[in-house]
Amino acid sequence: MGDRVMPSRVEPYPRRFTGPKSVWTSLADVTESRLSTTADWAAASRLIRVEEQLTSNEWVPKLWQSDDALVVPVDSERRIPVTVAGDQVRFVKPAGDYDSQRHFLLGRLDGAPRFVTTMDFADAELLTGAGEVARDEVVPASLRDVAANLSDIDRDLAIAAIAITNWHRNEPFCPRCGAASEIFKAGFMRVCPNCHNEYFPRTDPAVIVAIIDPDDRLLLGRQSSWGQRVSVFAGFVETGESAEQAVHREMAEEVGLPLREVRYFGSQPWPFPRSLMLGFVAYAAETEVATGYEISYADWFTRERLDRELEAGTIDIPGRSSIAHRLVTAWRTHSL
């Protein structure tokens, strides 16, 4: 893993929503709130990307001025505005002239353009697609806190918005010569005016793995900083290796287990800052687990033990917005 920090391992759990009304109940309340299904990313998104038209100097500004255009605001803390219940994203109407260095086109939803920009929410008139709402009905929230409560399309828009604004915030300079670069293609390309290098948003692939032993038990573990929280295991794909090879290497490094079978489960975008989580199910060839500097605790769980400890509140698992939760739930319901 080197010196990189795996976002899903450091903060794989939704932090408590701090708006006027929390969208999270205590996970110690009932097992059902901890082991529930959540939408996956297998179906096509309703957000239509418009790659072939992003280079037009006239088309994108016209979309910005169209009556049905809406903007996803993202603030300096990477939060989005949502309803107090945390189940809908609130949008703003485009204001002023189109600015190619600040306004980025995410795509079209049912033909209507959807943009993103960074702004202070206090500066915007907050809207839904249907009309105005009172300002006290809107609160800023982390995507980690509310993703599980959003509709598929609001979730897709929010993830895309945070991912592209993260890229511009973190990569303002040319990676070749260090000069300040400029934004093109409605936010999806940067060009260096000095060396003319073109570069594009990156996604870092990472694997996340549910390991099952010959007795159909699931391996769960934690880092020392996680408290009572446990999860499946994750790590970045290194240069020059396949995702499957990363599964074998990471699981050997983290828990010392050789694997006899690895199969793909599904994926999830995770824009903190730019990961694509590739989920796998792996079957362990043996059961002796070795923890080390990354993993402080790991143990095999039967379904009965997992239910019992969740009910007692002695362990916690990742929230419903995460692929880690999907993996645990799929194993728990015999769906792997």
Automatic annotation (TrEMBL):
<keyword id="KW-0378">Hydrolase</keyword>
<dbReference type="GO" id="GO:0035529">
    <property type="term" value="F:NADH pyrophosphatase activity"/>
</dbReference>
<dbReference type="InterPro" id="IPR015797">
    <property type="entry name" value="NUDIX_hydrolase-like_dom_sf"/>
</dbReference>
<dbReference type="Pfam" id="PF00293">
    <property type="entry name" value="NUDIX"/>
</dbReference>
<dbReference type="GO" id="GO:0019677">
    <property type="term" value="P:NAD+ catabolic process"/>
</dbReference>
<dbReference type="Pfam" id="PF09297">
    <property type="entry name" value="Zn_ribbon_NUD"/>
</dbReference>
<dbReference type="GO" id="GO:0046872">
    <property type="term" value="F:metal ion binding"/>
</dbReference>
<feature type="domain" description="Nudix hydrolase">
    <location>
        <begin position="201"/>
        <end position="324"/>
    </location>
</feature>
<dbReference type="InterPro" id="IPR020084">
    <property type="entry name" value="NUDIX_hydrolase_CS"/>
</dbReference>
<dbReference type="GO" id="GO:0005829">
    <property type="term" value="C:cytosol"/>
</dbReference>
<dbReference type="InterPro" id="IPR000086">
    <property type="entry name" value="NUDIX_hydrolase_dom"/>
</dbReference>
<comment type="similarity">
    <text>Belongs to the Nudix hydrolase family. NudC subfamily.</text>
</comment>
<keyword id="KW-0460">Magnesium</keyword>
<dbReference type="GO" id="GO:0006742">
    <property type="term" value="P:NADP+ catabolic process"/>
</dbReference>
<keyword id="KW-0479">Metal-binding</keyword>
<keyword id="KW-0520">NAD</keyword>
<dbReference type="InterPro" id="IPR050241">
    <property type="entry name" value="NAD-cap_RNA_hydrolase_NudC"/>
</dbReference>
<protein>
    <recommendedName>
        <fullName>NAD(+) diphosphatase</fullName>
        <ecNumber>3.6.1.22</ecNumber>
    </recommendedName>
</protein>
<dbReference type="InterPro" id="IPR049734">
    <property type="entry name" value="NudC-like_C"/>
</dbReference>
<dbReference type="InterPro" id="IPR015376">
    <property type="entry name" value="Znr_NADH_PPase"/>
</dbReference>
